[in-house]
Amino acid sequence: MATIKAIEARSVHQIQSGQVITDLCSVAKELVENSLDAHATTIEVRFKDNGLDLIEVQDNGGGIAPDNYESVALKHYTSKLASYDDLSSLNTFGFRGEALSSLCALSDFQVVTAQAHQVPVATKLEFEVSGKLAKKQVCAGRKGTTASVGGIFKRLPVRRRELEKNIKREYGKVVNLLHAYACISTGVSFSARNTVGKTKNVTVFSTNGNRTTKENIANVYGAKTLSALIPLELELEFEPSHAMKRSGGEDVVNKIQVRGHISRPVFGEGRQTPDRQMFFVNTRPCALPQIAKAFNEVYKSFNVSQSPFIFADFQMDTNAYDVNVSPDKRTILLHDAGALIDSLKVSLAQMFEAADQTVPQSQV
Ligand code: ADP
Ligand code: MG
C-alpha cells in the first residue's frame, strides 16, 4: 500500500488558489471589491488583450499602511474580519483574506500603493508565489492602490489554454460583471478600458460618480435603455419555513424589499438576449439563478419573445442569507428561497399588471 503523505504546501496553495480565482471574472471581482472596501470614489479597470495579458485596477482609496506590506498577500490575512462571529455584522465585500494570496500563486502580481500622507511617494510591492513580500521599492504615485495581475493562470497550463480559447466570451462576462458593480456603486466614478494588440486604448464604459443607480445605468447602457425601464419596488412578506421560526413560537414574518429597475412588460422594451440582468443582495452583486428564472418566467407571460433588463437589489436582514458558501462569494444561500420566490412571482405579476402596457410607437 502506498504511504499517505501530506501534499507539499506549495501545491496545496496552487490548488486552493484555483478555487478562489476561477476565471477572469473572479480576478476583476476581487480587485474591484478591494477598491470599494478601501472607500475608493474612483476606480479604473484596465485590460490588455482582453485581460489575458493584464488586468489592472487602480483606485483612490485609503491605500495600504506600511505596517501591512509584509502581510497583505499572505493567506487568510485580512484587515476586515478577525473571527467567525464578526461575519454577521460584516459590511465589507472581502473577509476571507484569500484573494491577493491566490493571485500571487496564479499570476505575476504586484501592487503600487500610497496613503494620503505619503503622496507623491508610493511603494511598489512584489510578491513570491506563496504571497510573501519579495521586494518593495519606492516610486511616484497618487493616493490609493493599483493592483496588477499579469499572465493569469500561467502556472495552471490547462486553465490558461482554456481561457485563451474562450477569451472573447470570458471578456464579455467580465464586462457584464463590471457593469453590475458600476451601476450599484453610487458616488463612485467607474471606468474600464481595453487595449488589444497595437490598437489604442478603447474605453469600454464609464460612470460619473452619480448619486443614483438610475444615472449610473444611463451612463453604462445609454439613455434609450433607461427610458424603457420602470422602477422595481416590491415589498415581499412571507412566512418563514418551520426550521426558521424562532424558538418561543411567536409569529415572525420575513420582510424583504426589492429595489431597482426593470423593462416595461411590453414588446419592444425587452431584448433578444438575457445579458442585461444583474442581481444584488444588500448591494453585493451575486448570482441568483433561481430568482433570475422567476423574473424571466413572469416577464415572459407579458412579453413572450423578449428578455427583460433587470437590476434588482434584495434588501434583507443579514441573518437571512449566507455569503460564505463558496470561496468566490458569488453564490449566496438564501434561507427560505422557495417561499421568497413564490412571493416574488405574485408581486411581480401584480406590478407588471399595473404598469403602462401600451406598445411603444416605434413597434406599432
Ligand atoms: P480580504 O479582502 O478578504 O481582506 P484580500 O486578499 O482581497 O482579502 O486583501 C487582503 C488585504 O489587503 C485586505 O484586507 C486589505 O487590508 C488590503 N487591500 C487589498 N486591496 C486593497 C486596496 N485596493 N486598497 C487598500 N487595501 C487593500
Ligand atoms: Mg478582498
UniProtKB/TrEMBL annotation:
Boundaries of each DNA mismatch repair protein S5 domain copy? 217-353
Q: Which family does it belong to?
A: Belongs to the DNA mismatch repair MutL/HexB family.
* Designated name of the protein: DNA mismatch repair protein PMS1
